[in-house]
Amino acid sequence: MTKNNLLLTGFMGVGKTTLGKLLAQRLNMGFVDTDQEIEKEYGPISCIFENYGEPYFRDLEWKVAQKLVLQDNQVISTGGGFLINPKIRELFKDYPVVVLWANPKDLKIRLSLAHNRRPLLENKRLSWQEIFQNRKNFYLSFSHHLDTSGKSIEEALFDLEKLWKAIIQ
Known about the structure:
Blueprint: E1 6-10, H1 16-27, E2 30-33, H2 34-42, H3 45-52, H4 54-68, E3 74-77, H5 86-91, E4 97-101, H6 104-113, H7 128-140, E5 144-147, H8 153-168
Parallel strand pairs: 1-3, 1-4, 2-3, 4-5
Helix pairs in contact: 1-8, 2-4, 3-4
């Protein structure tokens, strides 16, 4: 394992940022959200998508990844497509990755509450269900998964902490 870091990934709306922040606090680790890092440096993601497109955004993810790989003792919440980039995946190949899941019913509710903050939901060609299906096998390729469906934040956090402790044993 590398540098005592944990990467949280998964589809939008599964709880990566919420659970990542809470887990980091509980374990006395730092917390980084890749999307928030991009927004700090380059502005709102919705504007990046609108003005420059998704490929440009993916290039910004690569820039952020190169900085994050140098950090230690972090819970890193990634955007849902962050690890799809082969260069980023290679960069973090020795890091433990936990994929957070939620069933489609829960995702629909969660995403409807955050529609204005999810640029990929503005995609007129693909629905969120199609994007999810396109990424599903990718997410399944990782060893560690946690389903957040139907769980309170506290329940999901308890399960995530238990999984993290099992990973680092």
